[in-house]
Amino acid sequence: MSLTNIGKIIELFYSTKDGRVNTTELALDEKGVIEDKYYDKDIQRSVLIASLASYQLAADSGIDAPYSSLGENILIDYKPYHLTPGVRLKVGELILEISQNCTLCKSLAKVDARLPKLLKDDRGVFAKVISSGIIHKGDNIYLLK
């Protein structure tokens, strides 16, 4: 197995019933992000990864979308949207497997009505946790081959 460094974690988030929380580390297991309100809801959609490129695309279109507006758990400095289901990433202590592209949801329209159409192919990718661990802001991300 070989590792290719593809980027790093810029920000980390989880959702609670009271809103989004920015944090410096996340603990994850096979059921998802342990503190997240969506924990153990849908294993195939347990971790949302988004790219700085999506926020730049919004900014270039005059849309002010603060980080976490896309609902991501992990914001990275690499554009992962071409990665296909089954591709694995090593992030910090854990292994994630891409499960599907993120579908659009109407919550993006709350940020700006143009955002759902603009990011239809660039919102994020869902991953499932293959091996548990803790990830930290600044951790490197490796593509497993």
Which topology does CATH recognise?
A: M1 Pyruvate Kinase, Domain 3
Helix and strand succession? EEEEEHEEEHHEEE
Number of domains: 1
Instruction: Please compute the radius of gyration using only Cα atoms.
Output: 14 Å
Please provide the count of β strands: 11
Strand order of the largest sheet: 1-6-5-9-8-7-11
**Cα shape:** globular
How far from one another are the termini?
A: 6 Å
Tally of separate helices = 3
Unreliable stretches covering 5 or more consecutive residues: none
CATH H level, superfamily name: PK beta-barrel domain-like
Q: Which range best describes the helical content: under 10%, 10-25%, 25-40%, 40-55%, 55-70% or over 70%?
A: 10-25%
What is the overall pLDDT average? 94
- Can you tell me the CATH class? Mainly Beta
Q: What is the annotated CATH architecture? A: Beta Barrel
Question: Describe it for me?
Answer:
The protein has 145 residues and is mostly beta strands. It has a single domain (3-144), classed as M1 Pyruvate Kinase, Domain 3 (Beta Barrel), CATH 2.40.33.20. The chain contains three helices and eleven strands, in the order βββββαβββααβββ. It has helices at residues 52-60, 107-111, 115-118; strands spanning 3-16, 19-23, 25-29, 32-33, 47-51, 74-76, 88-91, 94-101, 125-131, 133-136, 140-144. It has a seven-stranded mixed beta barrel with strand order 1-6-5-9-8-7-11. Strand 3 and strand 4 form a beta hairpin. The longest helix has 9 residues, at 52-60. It is globular and about 40 Å long. The model has no long low-confidence stretch (mean pLDDT 94).
